[in-house]
Automatic annotation (TrEMBL):
InterPro entries: Gfo/Idh/MocA-like_OxRdtase_N (IPR000683), Gfo/Idh/MocA_Oxidoreductase (IPR052515), GFO_IDH_MocA-like_dom (IPR055170), NAD(P)-bd_dom_sf (IPR036291). Residues 5-121 form the Gfo/Idh/MocA-like oxidoreductase N-terminal domain. Gene3D superfamilies: Dihydrodipicolinate Reductase, domain 2 (3.30.360.10), NAD(P)-binding Rossmann-like Domain (3.40.50.720). Residues 133-255 form the GFO/IDH/MocA-like oxidoreductase domain. One of its GO terms (molecular function) is nucleotide binding. Pfam families: GFO_IDH_MocA (PF01408), GFO_IDH_MocA_C3 (PF22725). Coiled coil: none annotated. This is Gfo/Idh/MocA family oxidoreductase.
Length: 342
């Protein structure tokens, strides 16, 4: 498999470096171009990584050597930019969430299908060691019946964070607050492991920040279609910032993930968790340690091979859509004060 796929980056914020370094570490992948309306930051990344810099999106998309675009712009722009890229025959990768609008998300999925290009969304934590091991244990039936799942993200974002960009904390471009932006990774994991939700009842509030339209605290109770129950907490008002945790409890075993690492792994059959590392390090990955970019690299490796092998990646547009549907249902329940069926 010798073909190299060339990536173009859309956007020039700080997250760009994570994506560039992750892609460059994948065999058969290379970042060659960047587009942003912010000339200063795009030229900075262009000079640092030897990228062709564009300030016009149509010119950027006409680059015939570019196979894939990675969209790292405000959430509410993802679908619009992705649809234009798909129509030019480019495969599309978007940062989470896939978009803030369900209608636009559906249009993006349809546009990529019509153009016969691959669509994926960055949910890199599906590729964490602990999540891969939990999924394998589930596939082997070691949990037995799943009874309860919870995703809690108790972080802190300062007022300066929300004031740093006019789009932050807005419904139009941010699409939501603590749930849509900070908690969505663990909400995705909850759905990935526990399955679809049947009904949700939720509350949202803005308690600790000014000049934002969206929630900084949200709680939701869930009933999964399997009959299991669950909880979601999204919180950016938990000074000074604590953890993201995922609880999965079954008849025959329980696992707790904390900050992307296995904290508890207990099964009636004596199955033990054998990963030696309890630390995420910034050095290269080894058999027991994950670098800070490793999960991103693994997802990009899956996307590249999916394209070359003409198969679906693990995170398709339809998969990414699931967390958006649930979060929008939580917002609807909080507004109406009533449970919402999905």
């Amino acid at each position: 498999m010798k073909k190299t796929l060339n990536f173009g980056i859309i956007g020039s914020g700080n997250i760009v470096e994570t994506h560039i370094r992750s892609i460059q570490d994948v065999p058969n992948a290379e970042v060659t171009a960047i587009f942003s309306r912010n000339k200063a930051t795009s030229e900075k990344w262009g000079n640092q990584y030897g990228l062709q810099v564009y300030s016009d999106y149509e010119d950027f998309l006409r680059n015939d050597k570019m196979d894939i675009v990675t969209i790292l712009t405000p959430s509410g722009t993802h679908a619009d930019l992705g649809i234009l890229a798909a129509r030019q025959g480019k495969h599309v990768v978007v940062e989470k969430p896939i978009d803030t609008s369900l209608n636009k998300t559906n249009e993006l999925i349809h546009a990529c299908r019509e153009a016969n290009v691959t669509l994926s969304c960055i949910f890199q934590h599906r590729f964490d060691d602990g999540i891969v091991d939990i999924k394998n244990a589930m596939n082997l039936g070691e949990f037995g019946q799943l009874n309860f799942g919870a995703a809690r993200t108790t972080w802190y974002r300062s007022q300066e964070y929300y004031d740093s960009g006019a789009w932050r904390g807005t419904w139009e471009l941010d699409g939501g607050g603590a749930l849509m932006n900070q908690s969505i990774h663990y909400i995705d994991l909850l759905l990935y492991l526990m399955g679809p939700v049947e009904e949700v009842h939720a509350y949202c509030a803005t308690r600790a920040h000014e000049r934002i339209e969206v929630e900084d605290i949200a709680v939701a109770s869930l009933k999964f279609k399997s009959g299991a129950l669950g909880l979601i907490e999204g919180n950016t008002a938990a000074f000074p910032g604590y953890s993201a945790t995922l609880d999965i409890f079954g008849n025959n075993g329980s696992v707790i993930i904390e900050n992307d690492l296995v904290k508890e792994w207990n099964f009636k059959n004596g199955n033990e968790y054998t990963k030696a590392s309890k630390e995420v390090v910034k050095t290269s990955a080894s058999s027991n340690k994950m670098s800070s970019y490793e999960s991103h690299k693994r997802q990009y490796d899956d996307i590249v091979h999916a394209i070359l092998e003409k198969r679906d990646p693990l995170v398709t547009g339809e998969e990414a859509r699931k967390s958006l549907v649930l979060i929008l249902a939580i917002y609807e329940s909080a507004r109406s004060g009533s449970p919402v069926k999905l």
